[in-house]
Write a structure and sequence with these properties.
mainly alpha
Length: 158
């Protein structure tokens, strides 16, 4: 009995070592007879299929990571705003209204929404104007931000 069990394994080994060709059949009978005669071929084929599936999953996961990294980089670039502001000296009969108009224009035109961008804008106005206008600039800036950002808020204020 031992010799008969040993014989098919030798045949399978000999078949793999020679130049014989195996045909792949879709019938269950052919698959079961092939796997009975050549158990190492069946497990080898299974391992190859599993490896290919794992490789496809890894490639798809890596592609997703690449896409996500590109999206994140794009978001990071969108978060950085480059605003060019030109200061001009102006004589004004109503500085409050002029500051208000200018600030609203800058915020809307440059789509400023982030706190850091708004702070930069405020610092710009403070740095470009004399000390006598600083308190007015702070008041107007607060008013503009309240009107632009809190009026669009859907929450109820008590």
């Amino acid at each position: 009995m031992r010799a008969s069990q040993h014989q098919p394994q030798q045949r399978g080994c000999r078949a793999l070592c020679c130049s014989c060709r195996f045909s792949v059949s879709s019938s269950e009978e052919a698959e079961s007879s092939a796997s009975d005669r050549f158990p190492s071929v069946s497990s080898l084929a299974h391992a190859m299929v599993q490896e290919r599936l794992d490789q496809m999953i890894r490639e798809k996961t890596e592609a997703r990571h690449v896409v996500e990294r590109r999206r994140q980089q794009s978001r990071d670039r969108e978060g950085t705003k480059f605003v060019v502001m030109v200061a001009m000296e102006k004589c004004s009969y109503d500085p409050r209204e002029d500051f208000k108009e200018s600030m609203m224009e800058m915020i809307i035109a440059n789509r400023l929404q982030e706190a850091k961008d708004l702070r930069s804008l405020l610092n710009y106005y403070i740095s470009m104007n004399s000390n006598k206008y600083h308190s007015l600039i702070l008041e107007v800036f607060h008013e503009v931000c309240t009107n632009l950002f809190l009026s669009s808020c859907q929450c109820q204020q008590w």
